[in-house]
Design goal:
CATH topology: Growth Hormone, Chain: A
Number of strands: 0
Number of helices: 18
Subcellular location: Cell membrane
Domain Major facilitator superfamily (MFS) profile: 6-469
Number of domains: 1
Mean pLDDT: 81
Transmembrane segments: 7-25, 45-63, 75-94, 100-121, 133-158, 164-183, 204-225, 231-250, 276-298, 304-328, 340-360, 366-392, 413-435, 447-468
Pfam families: MFS_1
CATH superfamily: MFS general substrate transporter like domains
Largest sheet: none
Structural class: mainly alpha
InterPro entries: MFS, MFS_dom, MFS_trans_sf
C-alpha cells in the first residue's frame, strides 16, 4: 500500500475503535429509560450492562490470536456484520431477554473487532511512522472514551425520555454499514504469512482463560453499592484463582510441546509493554470511575437532566482531543514525562470540581465544574494517547493483535474494578445517611462524591507509580540527548 492508502486505513481502524469504545459508556446513560420502558429492576439493568462487558472481555484474546494468524480482514467483516445485526436487535427489542441477548452479541462483535484495528496499524506502520500512527489512534480513543456519555445523552434527548434508548442502538446500524463499506475499500485484505508455530491456536488455553475472566468480572459488574448487593458474589474469586493457576500450568505445558501458547511470555516479559498495561488499567479504573460519580452527583444533587449533566462534562471531550493530539506529537521525545504531566493535570481538574460543588452554590458550582472539565479532559488525552504508543513500542508487528487484545482485556478488568469501587463508595454513603437514593440532602451527596473520588484516587496512585517506574527505566537506557524512540527496536528492552 502507498503512504496515502496506509493513512486512510489508519483512520478507518481508528474510527472503528472509537465507535466500539463509545458503546461501552453511552448505553449506561440509557439504563433508567430502559427500566421505565421495559419495566425491569436494578438486577436486570446490571445484566444489560454486564452482558456487553463480559462478552467483550471473553472474546478479545482468542480473536486477537486468530487475527495474527492471517484472518484479520475476514474477522473485521464478520465482526461488523454481527455488530450491525446485534445493534438492530437491541434497538428493536420488545423484552428484556432480547435486549440482554443483543448486548451479549454486541460485546462479542466488539471483542472480535477491537484487536484487529490495532493489528492493522501494527501491520502497516513501522519505526517512527508507527509512533505517529498510534498517536493519531490515541486521539480517537481519547475522544471516544470522554464523549460516550455525552453522545448517549444527546440521542436520549432526540429520541424522547422513554424510547430514546433505542436510538442509541439503532444509530449503530448506519454507522456499522458505513464502516463495513469503508473497511472493504481501505483496509488491507492480506497480511504477512506467519510461521507454523505462530499459527497454533491453543483452544484449551482459550477456554481456561475465558472461564477465569468470566469469574473475575462476575462480582465486579454486579457491584453497585446498593443495599441489595450480595456478599456471596465475591466467592466467584476463589474458583477464578483456581482456573488462573490451571491456565498458567497449561500454558507452560503447551509451550513445552514446541507450540506458541495463548499467553505470550515474551510479551509479558517486555517491560515497556507490562508497565503500559498497568498504566492503562489503573487509569481506566480511576478516570471513568470519577466520571460516573460526577454524572450521578450532577443529576441527584444539582437536579440536572442526563443531557444537561452530559453537557457539563462535554468540555472534557474537546480538551481530551487536543491533549491527545498534542501529546502524540511529542511522546517519542518525552515519553512518560507527558503521561505523568497528564495524570496530574487531570487530577487538578477533578480536585477543582470536587471543591467547587462542596463550597459553592448550585449555579457557580456548575460553571466551575464545566471549566474544570477542560483540565480533566486535557490530562486524560495526555495519558491515553501516549500510552497507546508506548504500549506497543517494543511489540513485533506479527503479534500486534494479540498484544492489543491482552491490553484491552486488562483495561476492561481495570475499568470494571474502578466502576465497581467508585459507585459502591458513592452509593454506600447515600444509603448510609438517607436510606434511599433520590431524596438525600446535598451535604450527603457532597460526602458521597468525595468518597467516590477517594476510591478512584487509589487507582490514580497506582497509575502514577507505574508511570514513574517506566520513566526511571527509560532514563536508564538513554543519554540525556537521545530521544525516547523505542519503536525501532521491537522487543529489544526486556
Amino acid at each position: 500500500m502507498d503512504d496515502r492508502s496506509r493513512w486512510r486505513a489508519l483512520y478507518v481502524a481508528s474510527i472503528l475503535s472509537g465507535v466500539l469504545l463509545v458503546g461501552i459508556s453511552d448505553a449506561n446513560v440509557a439504563l433508567p429509560a430502559i427500566a421505565r420502558s421495559l419495566h425491569v429492576g436494578p438486577t436486570s439493568l446490571q445484566l444489560i450492562s454486564a452482558g456487553y462487558v463480559v462478552a467483550f472481555g471473553l472474546t478479545l484474546v482468542p480473536f486477537g490470536r486468530l487475527g495474527d494468524q492471517g484472518r484479520r480482514h475476514q474477522l473485521i467483516r464478520v465482526g461488523l456484520l454481527l455488530y450491525i445485526a446485534s445493534s438492530l436487535a437491541c434497538g428493536l427489542a420488545a423484552d428484556l431477554r432480547t435486549l440482554i441477548a443483543g448486548r451479549v452479541l454486541l460485546g462479542v462483535a466488539a471483542g472480535i473487532l477491537m484487536p484487529q484495528t490495532i493489528g492493522v496499524i501494527q501491520q502497516l506502520f513501522g519505526g517512527a511512522d508507527r509512533g505517529r500512527a498510534f498517536g493519531a489512534y490515541g486521539v480517537m480513543t481519547a475522544v471516544a472514551t470522554a464523549s460516550g456519555p455525552g453522545i448517549g445523552g444527546l440521542l436520549m434527548t432526540v429520541g424522547g425520555a422513554d424510547q430514546g434508548w433505542r436510538w442509541i442502538f439503532l444509530m449503530n446500524v448506519p454507522v456499522g454499514v458505513a464502516l463495513f463499506a469503508a473497511g472493504a475499500r481501505h483496509l488491507p485484505r492480506t497480511q504477512p504469512v506467519m510461521t507454523t508455530i505462530t499459527r497454533s491456536f491453543d483452544p484449551i488455553g482459550a477456554v481456561l482463560l475465558g472461564v477465569t475472566v468470566l469469574l473475575v468480572l462476575f462480582p465486579l459488574v454486579l457491584t453497585t453499592g446498593l443495599p441489595g448487593d450480595s456478599a456471596a458474589r465475591w466467592s466467584a474469586l476463589v474458583p477464578a484463582a483456581v482456573f488462573a493457576v490451571l491456565f498458567l500450568r497449561w500454558e507452560r505445558r503447551y509451550l513445552g510441546r514446541g507450540l506458541l501458547p495463548l499467553l505470550d511470555g515474551e510479551l509479558l516479559r517486555t517491560r515497556s509493554y507490562r508497565n503500559a498495561l498497568l498504566v492503562a488499567a489503573s487509569w481506566l479504573a480511576a478516570g471513568p470511575g470519577v466520571g460516573l460519580v460526577m454524572m450521578l452527583y450532577l443529576q441527584l444533587a444539582l437536579g440536572l437532566s442526563p443531557f444537561l449533566a452530559a453537557l457539563v462534562l462535554l468540555p472534557s471531550s474537546a480538551a481530551s482531543a487536543f491533549g491527545a493530539r498534542w501529546a502524540a506529537r511529542r511522546v517519542l521525545r518525552w515519553g512518560r514525562v507527558i503521561t505523568l504531566t497528564g495524570l496530574f493535570t487531570s487530577a487538578a481538574g477533578i480536585l477543582v470540581s470536587v471543591l467547587a460543588v462542596n463550597l459553592l452554590a448550585q449555579r457557580p458550582a456548575i460553571a466551575v465544574v464545566t471549566v474544570a472539565q477542560i483540565l480533566n479532559g486535557l490530562g486524560s488525552g495526555m495519558v491515553i494517547s501516549p500510552n497507546h504508543v508506548l504500549l506497543l513500542s517494543d511489540v513485533p508487528a506479527e503479534k500486534g493483535s494479540l498484544a492489543a487484545s491482552i491490553g484491552h482485556l486488562t483495561q476492561r478488568i481495570g475499568n470494571s474494578l474502578g466502576i465497581a469501587a467508585t459507585s459502591a463508595a458513592f452509593y454506600a454513603v447515600v444509603y448510609g445517611h438517607a436510606g434511599e437514593l433520590t431524596n438525600a440532602g446535598r451535604s450527603t451527596y457532597d460526602s458521597a462524591l468525595v468518597a467516590g473520588v477517594v476510591a478512584a484516587g487509589l487507582f490514580f496512585a497506582l497509575a502514577v507509580w507505574a508511570t514513574v517506574t517506566d520513566l526511571v527505566r527509560t532514563r536508564l537506557y538513554r543519554t540525556p540527548s537521545e530521544p525516547i524512540d523505542r519503536t525501532t527496536k521491537a522487543g529489544a528492552r526486556t
